[in-house]
Amino acid sequence: MQVSANKFRHPSSHQLGLRSVLLLILFVVSLYEFKSMGLVGMGMVCAIPVAVIVVYIAFRWKMSTFWMLFVLNYFLMFLERYGYIPMPTSLPNELFEIVLLCIAIIDAKMFLEARFCNLMTFALVIWCSFCTLQVLNDTCDLGVNIGFWYTGARLMAFQLMYACIVCAIYVTTPENVMRFIKLWAICSFIAIFWVWKQRTFGFSQPEKVFLIRAGRTHIIHGIIRYFSVFSDAANFGIHMAAAAVIFYVCAITGKLKNDRILFLLAAVGCTWAMFTSGTRTAIFCMIVGFMVFVFLSKSIKIAIPVTIIFGSLVFMLAFTTIGEGNSMIRRMRTAFDKNDASASVRDINKDAISKYMKDAPWGIGLGMDATKIPANHKLQRLSSIPPDSEYVFIWVHTGPIGLVFFIVTTLMIFGSACFIVLFRIRNNTLRGIGAAICSGFVALHLGGYANQILMQFPNIFLFYGGMSIIHTMPYMDQKFTEMENKRLQIAEEKKRIKKEKKRASRV
Questions:
Q1: What radius of gyration, in Å, describes the C-alpha atoms of the chain?
Q2: Closest alpha carbon to 457 in 226, 191, 279
Q3: Left, alpha or beta for 373 (phi > 0: left; psi -120 to 50: alpha)?
Q4: With a cut of 50, which residues of the chain have pLDDT below it?
Q5: What's the pLDDT at 60?
Q6: Which residues have a Cβ under 8 Å from the Cβ of 355 and sit 6 or more positions away?
Q7: 3-state DSSP call for residue 187?
Q8: C-alpha to C-alpha distance for 105 and 97, rounded to whole angstroms
Q9: Is 313 exposed, middle or buried (0-12, 13-18, 19+ CB in 10 A)?
Q10: pLDDT tens-digit series, residues 36-48
Q11: Is the peptide bond before 361 cis (omega within 30 degrees of 0)?
Q12: Whether the Cβ atoms of residue 376 and residue 416 lie closer than 8 Å to each other
């Protein structure tokens, strides 16, 4: 009797063989990429199996994936500094956003219930369309280069749209709105702790390398400008200023005691962290942010104390010598010095750029820099002048026409969000969150006028995503009130039980 050899073969042996072939192909491709692109290319290929696992997890736990994207955005530059991301820095963030969008499209119900058909989305469509047309920009006489263009366009335009749509799809309930703000506060506490660690115990080796490379901008007259888990001190300081405004406003307008305490502690911590950055623009960002809140609050009871407190802070810095012994306060006080040397350098750079921009009404093109433009080209010098500002950067790469498009779309987003906060939200706490995000958005853009931080991580996802959430708030107004009343009842019940136990213990 003959027994077939197939009977003793494992039923899934053909699957194992297929996996082995796929792994072999992956190994060969990774070696080829290592030869042609180096470690970055090899790392991208080797990340494919990880990406497959991430996609599977993302489809199974959708909201967990969204919160992972949130945390990744906040700490992406920190992970990049320590070499934990063997690929272009923005790629993991972009992949997460695309996966989340694909999940929503596959889950038709989730996609159809999303509230992203609004003025903000329309404004970003205008901006993304303009940036798409920039692929035809040949000001530098280099021909059409889709690779260079896409590198610039996805950072300057497409990621804004990704953040807008993803947040509109996944933050659609009152509970998720509160989680969004609270997780932001928790991440801020980590950033505050890390800057405290840097000041108390010193810098790690990767951070020392960064300081050596950026010494001219981060060590000024012996004063170190701290940067925590962010890309640089300017980004850190301005983000902390905008976040402090958001948390102060949430603490003022919230009803639940625990929430107010959490946001107040986060706000105070962010204010302290802002000073450690030595970013003088951050002071003005905070002031303007509170001015926007005073306008949106429509309350004299709120406007008067807020104006007095922060008016006193400005007066102390501008007209007194209080705290002069503290290096951080002394550094911030120079923001009110009209003869400051660094401000003069920025004005000189802008004047030099404006002379070259006469020959580039559409800008030098997205993705173009000094390494890509020939040395003998008349605009090569333009690409090498430090822009010192996100708005100047946009001006250089898209021209005055592009700058006008960006400003108009930004005003459309801000104006639409303010209208919703003023007239379409009834719940005071939800309106306070909306006003807080609007105030932080303005604070961030003021910082972008003076520093190149607007498109840095984690600002795009948090602030543009936050503005997108405001546009969904009118649809959850009633549910937010119900959720808040339920939480208030639970808090009152806990307080009653605590009082009864205390009374019983005295008997």
A1: 26
A2: 191
A3: beta
A4: 1-11, 13-15
A5: 76
A6: none
A7: helix
A8: 12
A9: middle
A10: 555 555 556 566 6
A11: no
A12: no
> What type of residue sits at position 66?
F
Cα 125 → chain centroid? 20
In the numeric block, the tokens 């967990």 are attached to 64
Length of the chain (residues): 507
Q: DSSP characters for 121-177?
A: HHHHHHHHHHHHHGGG--TTS----HHHHHHHHIIIIIHHHHHHHHHHHH--SHHHH
Task: Tell me if 263 sits within 8 A of 433, measured CB to CB.
Answer: no
Widest CA span in the chain: 105
Tell me how many helices (H) and strands (E) the chain has: 23, 2
Q: Is 117 helix (H, G, I), strand (E, B) or coil?
A: coil
Please give the Cα distance from 247 to 76 (Å, whole number): 22
**Token pair 């491709």 is at which residue?**
29
> Which pLDDT tens digit goes with each residue over 253-305?
999 999 999 999 999 999 999 989 888 888 889 989 999 998 898 777 777 77
CA–CA distance, 78 with 76 (Å, rounded to integer): 5
pLDDT at 298: 77
Token look-up 């991440």 returns 187
